[in-house]
Structure formats: structure tokens, C-alpha cells
Amino acid sequence: MIQIKEIRSPWKIAYMDWIIALPQEGERSFNACLVLVDRYRETPMFLPFHKGDTAMSTAIVIWNRVISHTGLFQNIISDRDPRFTSALWRELHKLFETRNNNTDLRIHDKKILCLGLKLKDSDVFTHDWCTLIPALELAYKKSIHSSTGKTPEILGKDCNTRIPYVTLKKDLVDINPKESSFKISLTKARHCTNRCMQDYFKYAKEIWDKSHKSPVFKVVDLFSLSTLNFDKIKGPKKLKNFFAGTFMIRALYFHNSVKLELRCELMSKHPSSPVSLIEPYSSSDKELFSLRNKPPLEIPPLEEGEEKKTVKVLEEEGKETKKKGNTL
User: Are 207 and 133 within one domain?
Assistant: First the structure.
């Protein structure tokens, strides 16, 4: 994990996440959506995809539809999703002619989840979710974000541009002919998105206040690491304890992440981990089983007499019996 410097220019740092489990809609039956959000202006981009798309085809779409408008990213922030830690990064690095030195585990804002819920919502739009993407992007750009206190339009252009709603029809994938007024639908989408974002911010704050505990640890402390999200771990997962090993903390990153010294089969994993995936290592069960008493060790008495010598005769007897069996 590396510390990302705050850059005051758009599309230098981008969040990237997938929205899956969407219904198959549109002429090409899209069932997944890739979301990219500019960290500086909070400007989103939504790209419809198929779940079965290869890493190369996904990288080419990002190159053609994203990089041509935003330029090359300096940093891309994502989670440990296997869709990002697999072949997609390699294909993107091939196209960008770059390489991945570190994997950043900074947990991005969960506003993308809110957008995913909006895409799955069928109360406002009765047709496929692909047609909702342009309206959702516009509503997102016109919304005030809690992290910046401004709208993405203000940060990008110093003003909220007034765009005629009618001109946005050409950007839609499929306009439902039954829609009598696109302006009414777009206004509903904007209000619904704002309400959904506000509800999520309130819900996330309540969950954070209830569950968050400031960790108290230091370098060289021993901890166990959760392997719940790790792939290719030996043994059945149902019978295996998710918290494995005794690992030592090598470095601290702020108050929410650490760098561990991994060993054995976990050496191929990235050593950085958020504090939510580690727990202090306990060498005994005294706290869990306070009434359990271990019996004292009994030392057998020494026999008096001549000093006895230990002779290895079992192996020789075994060999002799085998020879006798062969002769018979």
C-alpha cells in the first residue's frame, strides 16, 4: 500500500468498481456495468458490459471510451475484487505501457453501491437500465457531494451549465417510445438519485459510528489475518478457520491499514491489509475458557540400579521377520 497524494486536477486519480447482478437489457443484452469516478471532481462514467467479457475486450473499451476523454490516469483505486486483481490489470498495463508497482487498498466511497441500487430500481424507468446511464451521469454531476461540498460541474467548469434536456436524447442507447416527456423522467431520476445518495450517507454514517473502533497496536505486534477473500487457499473453506497464521506488523499506514510479514502459502499475497481484516493473536485460551485447568506434569521416578542402555532392536526384528516371510 502506498500513500496517494491529493492532486488538484481532474482524472489523475480514479475510483473503479463493478456493478453486477443487473438484468439483461438493451440491444446487446448487457448485464454488468463498470463505474469510474474522478476523485477530484466526483464525476462518474458508466460503461455497460457483459459478465463474460474477457480482460482484453474490457481493457480495449476503457481505452477507447474513457482514456480518449480523460487522458491517462496516474492512480486507479479499487478493492480486492478478483475482477481487478486478475488479467484486467495486465491488459491495461499493456495498453498504457505502464506497470503496477503497488496495489492500493484504500477503500473508496461506497457511493458506487448507491448508484448500483439506482440502476436496479424500476420505479422511475420502466424500460432497460442502459437508457438510464446518461440521465444518471447528469444527475450525479449536478449533485452536491459531501467530500467536496460542491457539484462536479462547479469543480470542473466553475459553473453549473444549463443544458437543454431535449439535446440529451441523442446520447441515449434506447429511448422508450412510450415515454411522453423525457424532461419529467430526467427530473425524477435526478431527485431519486439525490434522495438515494442522502439515505445512503445517513445509513453509512450510522453503521460507521456503531461498528468503528479505533485500533490500538504498534509495530512488531502479532496478528492473525482473515483469508475469507483470498483465492487458491489449500483445504476446504467450510472447515477452515478464516483467521490464519501468526504474522508480525512491519509498518503502519495511518489508522486504518497495516503491512504484515506474510509467510508460507500467503507469501504471494499483498502484504498490506486494512485493520478490519486482522485480529490480535492469542497464544492461549484462558480468556475463553477461564475455568479450564491444565493438569501438572508428572515426572516418572527413576529406577535405581544399573544404568540401562537403549538399543534399537525393533527395526532389526522387523527386517528379520520380513526375511523369514520371504523364505517361507
Answer: yes
Judged by DSSP in three states, 129 sits in helix
Give the CB-side neighbour count of residue 21, counting CA atoms within 13 A. Answer: 6
Domain-embedded: residue 299: no
Q: Which residues pair with 224 in a beta bridge?
A: 279
- Report in angstroms the alpha-carbon separations of 61 from 55, 84, 314: 10, 15, 71
Q: What percent of the chain has pLDDT over 90?
A: 0
- 125 and 260: one domain? no
Which of 280, 297, 314 lies at the terminal end of a domain, its last residue?
A: 280
Q: Which of 211, 239, 272 is the last residue of a domain?
A: 211
Can you give the pTM of this predicted structure?
0.36
Which of 43-57, 93-107, 137-151 shows the lowest mean pLDDT across its residues? 93-107
> Model confidence over 171-222: pLDDT tens digits?
444 444 444 555 666 677 778 878 888 888 888 888 877 776 666 777 777 7
In which domain, by residue range, is 246 found? 222-280
Is residue 105's pLDDT more than 50? no
Picking from 248, 270, 252, the residue whose alpha carbon sits closest to that of residue 261 is 248
Same domain for 270 and 233: yes
Triad 257, 79, 46: Cα angle to 5°: 140
Burial of residue 265 (number of CB atoms within 10 Å: 0-12, 13-18, 19+) = middle
